[in-house]
Amino acid sequence: MISPLATGGFRHYTYVFAFLTAFLWLLQSYRQIYSALFGRNVLTVNASYIYDFVGDVKYYWKDIDEIYEEKSLLYINLYEPQNYLDEVGNPINRFRVKLWFKPDERKSSFVINIDYVAANPDELLKLLNEYSIGAEN
User: Fold this and answer.
1) Which residues of 1-27 are buried (b: 16+ CB within 10 A; e: fewer)?
2) Which of 4, 14, 27, 49 sits a CA distance of 20 to 30 A from 60?
3) Other C-beta atoms within 10 Å of 117: how many?
4) Which of 97, 24, 20 lies closest to 55 in space, CA to CA?
5) Residue 108: alpha-carbon gap to chain centroid
6) Cβ count within 10 A of residue 91
7) SS3 61
8) H or E segment at 92?
9) pLDDT for residue 53
C-alpha cells in the first residue's frame, strides 16, 4: 500500500496546507486550550491592571482611557496604544494588532473575547468600572 504522503502533485501539497493550517490554529488557540484543561483564569482584574491570559497582555489602569463591551467583545481604548503593540504575547494576535492598528481610529485594536470568561458581562463591566474609578483616585 502506498502512503498518501508519498503521492505527488496537487494532493501532496494539500497535506502541507492542512498541516500548516492546523499548526497556525494551535499557535492561535493554545492558551484557550490550556486554560480550559487546567482551569486557568482567563481574565484577572485587580486594582493595578487587567490581565488577559489568552492574549497574554497586562493593561494597566493608568493607561486605559475607556472600556466598553460590544457583541461579546471587550474593547480597551488606551491613551498611548502604540506602547502596547509589542506587549501582546501571542505572536498571531501581535501580528493582527499591528496589522490593524490605526492611531487615529476610535475603535480599539485591543480586544478581549469575554465568551471565555465565566462571568455575567454586565457584572464584569460593573466591576471594571469600579476598579477604573478606584484607579483614578
Assistant:
1) eeeeeeeeeeeeeeeeeeeeeeeeeee
2) 27
3) 18
4) 97
5) 12
6) 11
7) helix
8) helix 91-100
9) 83
3 state SS of 104:
coil
What pLDDT, on the 0 to 100 scale, is given for residue 10?
A: 63
Task: Tell me the three cell numbers of residue 16.
Answer: 502541507
Rounded distance between C-alpha atoms, residue 69 and residue 65, angstroms = 14
DSSP letter (8 states) at residue 106: S
Q: Which residue has the cell 502512503?
A: 3
Rounded to an integer, what distance in angstroms lies between the CA atom of residue 124 and that of residue 101? 26
Half-sphere exposure of 95 (CA within 13 A, CB side): 5
Grid cell listed for 65: 482611557
Which residues neighbour 58 within 8 Å (Cβ) at sequence distance 6 or greater?
49, 50, 51, 52, 87
**Which of these, 77, 30, 80, lies nearest to 55 by C-alpha position?**
30
In whole angstroms, what is the distance from residue 92 CA to residue 55 CA?
A: 10
Q: Assess whether pLDDT exceeds 80 at residue 48.
A: yes
Digit-coded pLDDT (tens) for 79-99: 888 888 888 777 777 888 888
